[in-house]
Amino acid sequence: MPANRIPYERYFEVSALPEPGVPMHSYAYLRRLTSDVLETAPVWDTHAHVGRDRDGRELDFIGLLRDLDDYRVNGAVIFPFNDPEQGTDFRVPNDRVWDAYRAAPERFVPFMRLNPNGPWEDEYERCRDRGHRGIKLHPRVQDFALNASAAMEIYARAATDRLPVLVHTGYGMGAASDDLAGIASKRPPSGA
Asked: What is the pTM of this model?
């Protein structure tokens, strides 16, 4: 097994439970759980929100950088929460993400957030043109089907511009893997 891989069996070891006095939410515990892989391989968080959420949660980029440093994570892919100031196009929260990226470009990869139910086209172009590196979509919160025509148009534009699309498929969503596989199978291969 390569030295920078977490051994599969480590996920099931009882000995991976924290020792007395070692907090479960600590770098010491994470290091033990991953057999010191964190010491030899770069670690990136590929799902991090910046800004404010309608549920009252808030995380600015300084707090995120502090969290990344505490856990010795090299950087993060960042995008907006379901922001109370998102309007119909996410312009304000996408600006927050861009400001965070500009403050720490070596630590953050900015993704734009779009709402297929709103006027997303201008915001897509604005964010793409200034350098956002991908798109985050949230079908449950923005109330759209994965195969809605506007969502399909976003996927097509993203494929043309070679931007990855991250789709929320977790909390509050039914099984989406078959739907996403069907959508992906209709797209031409990357680079085609």
From this structure: 0.78
